[in-house]
Design a protein that fits this description.
Blueprint lengths: L24 E3 L10 H11 L12 E10 L2 E2 L2 E2 L7 H4 L4 E10 L14 E9 L2 E8 L12 H8 L10 H8 L6 H7 L14 E2 L4 E4 L5 E10 L8 H8 L5 H11 L5 E10 L25 E10 L4 H6 L12 E3 L3 H17 L67 E3 L7 H12 L2 H16 L3 H14 L1 H11 L3 H5 L23 H6 L13
Antiparallel strand pairs: 1-14, 2-5, 2-12, 3-4, 5-6, 6-7, 8-10, 9-10, 9-13, 10-11, 11-12
Helix pairs in contact: 3-4, 5-10, 10-12, 11-13, 12-13
GO biological process, one term: response to hydrogen peroxide
Protein name: Catalase
GO molecular function: catalase activity; heme binding; metal ion binding
């Protein structure tokens, strides 16, 4: 597992050498990703097709129906100040929904006591069409660029030779990605094993934008807070449950709803003015970071109640399909690179896994709005979307009674985008270590003890070079954190501390120095430094 200088060169399926496998092509460091990301599209679309028929990730899951009831307010102000999405702005209005809870890495029949993030996907059947909010229970993720996702999942999945989840594979990936330390600290603590789906939080993880009727945008993160309280399990508690039941969380949710003990969550949003926010030590678009709640409080916008179990697990829960690109007017994308990559990947996965007409299935079909498209054909089509007055016309525009475009409902949201096209990594990396250290210090004693025990056992199962580097990382998050992991694993803390920083990575607590790739020649000709924007013309 050494001798990296002699490793073969990574290529695309076309045989092209891969020079940068860490960054999407984007317009500037914070700008949107571009459609001609051939390397990424080849990588992610192949990844989406790796398994059939179960999901590649989130295979083990359960679901339920319910409703969302909006308050019509955000921070004691009318919600219309921030958004024109009707699902959030009508006081007391109830929107039907379907939720699927899941684990991430395990197969369809894996135990629900696994130490793993939990998926928390909600499909709102709004009057303006469906809105899918697809996230997890921990508000953050392991990586901040979607091009890394297939590699991350491969490292976390079973070894292709032994077919076992090997700790060294997980930490071999993590040691090269300091942004993962925050999520590792959460997952390896009791928060990595929720006691039940009813007693866990949910989050969008990614940053979205709320758009108001005037076309003004605010950055937004969404969270679900369980009114049943939050409860997690230690490793021994989880082992005791798993010895008797592999689907305890599915059983708990089903029986609670059947008995009329309907679980409920408060739906909250965190808001931030749209912009780069250079005053923060992290980029608000970075999904490996939490927005501090003392600066960006959780503001209640409504509640969710689950009150009905599915009639058939396969037809509803397993064929339910979610996508981060399924938004309604008044809720929009940010340039979060994980969100942009997920938006292509999720829907592409469903078209492959369930079929191109997956949106015709009752659990996925819009209920609050009529569906009229000119799309037709494909596998498993069992009805034709309602056409216009003239059924002979399946195209647009037409003067012969076909479908027509909808009128605009508010002022368009316009985002100014400029920058040099290239592959960029964020320069704001100080909080890669800081937020993980803060999380360690805010844990209760029993949570810290469980975290250290779990990490110590993992380090003992890793090659020495990986274990030393991971202790180095933990020590830079917090000296006590690293020291206790070293003691639990029998590692010499001084040897770990003496390691040099990772090649090509900023020292812990420092900003990365500029982008990793620029075009160079064009910038020299323009008289700018690599990575700098050219002056915008006078308007």
């Amino acid at each position: 597992m050494s001798g990296h200088d002699k490793s073969p060169i990574l290529t695309t399926r076309q045989g092209h050498p891969v020079i940068d496998n860490q960054s999407l092509r984007s317009v500037g460091e914070r700008g949107p990703a571009t459609l001609e990301n051939y390397q990424f599209i080849e990588k992610i679309t192949h990844f989406d097709r790796e398994r059939i028929p179960e999901r590649v990730v989130h295979a083990r899951g359960t679901g339920a129906y319910g409703y969302f009831e909006a308050t019509g307010k955000i921070s004691d102000e009318p919600a219309t100040k921030y958004t024109r999405a009707k699902v959030l702005t009508k006081p007391g209005h109830r929107t039907p929904l379907f939720v699927r809870f899941s684990t991430v890495i395990g197969s369809k029949d894996s135990p629900e006591t696994a130490r793993d993030p939990r998926g928390f996907a909600v499909k709102f059947y709004t009057e303006d069409g469906n809105w899918d909010l697809v996230g997890n229970n921990l508000r953050i993720f392991f990586i901040r660029d979607a091009i890394k996702f297939p590699d991350m999942i491969h490292a976390f999945k079973p070894d292709p030779v032994t077919n076992r989840q090997e700790p060294w594979r997980f930490y071999d990936f993590v040691q090269h990605h300091p942004e993962s330390l925050h999520m590792v600290t959460w997952v390896k603590s009791p928060w990595g094993i929720p006691a039940s789906y009813r007693q866990m939080e949910g989050s969008s993880v990614n940053t979205y934008k709320l758009i108001n009727p005037e076309g003004v945008a605010h950055l937004a993160k969404f969270s679900w807070v369980p009114k049943q309280g939050v409860r997690n399990l230690t490793a021994p508690q989880a082992a005791e449950i798993q010895a008797k039941e592999v689907g305890h969380a599915t059983k708990d949710l089903y029986e609670a709803i059947e008995s009329g003990n309907f679980p409920e969550w408060e739906f909250c949003v965190q808001l931030m003015e749209d912009g780069e926010h250079p005053e923060l030590d992290f980029d608000p678009l970075d999904d490996t970071k939490r927005w501090p709640e003392d600066k960006f409080p959780l503001l209640s916008v409504g509640r969710m109640v689950l009150d009905r179990n599915p009639d058939n697990v396969h037809a509803e829960t397993e064929q339910s399909a979610f996508g981060t690109g399924v938004l309604v007017d008044g809720i929009d994308f940010s340039d979060d690179k994980m969100l942009q990559g997920r938006t292509l990947s999720y829907s592409d996965t469903q078209r492959y896994r369930v079929g191109p007409n997956y949106l015709q299935l009752p659990v996925n079909a819009a209920k609050g709005a009529q569906v009229r498209t000119n799309q037709q054909g494909g596998q498993m089509a069992y009805y034709v979307d309602q056409a216009g007055p003239n059924k002979h016309v399946n195209y647009e525009p037409s003067s012969q009674g076909g479908l027509q475009e909808a009128p605009r409902t508010g002022r368009d949201y316009h985002q100014w985008v400029e920058g040099h096209l290239g592959r960029y990594q964020t320069t704001r990396t100080q909080d890669d270590y800081r937020q993980a250290g803060e999380r360690y210090r805010t844990f209760e004693d029993w949570e810290r003890d469980d975290l250290i025990a779990n990490l110590g056992a993992d380090m003992q199962a890793c090659p020495e070079e990986i274990a030393l580097r991971m202790v180095w990382h933990f020590w830079h998050c917090d000296p006590d954190y690293g020291t206790r992991v070293a003691q639990a694993a029998g590692i010499d803390i001084e040897r770990a501390k003496a390691l040099p920083p990772l090649p090509g990575k900023p020292a812990p607590g420092q900003r990365r120095e500029g982008p990793t790739y620029t075009s160079g020649r064009a910038e020299e000709a323009a008289g700018t430094q690599p990575g700098q924007s050219q002056p915008k013309a006078a308007e």
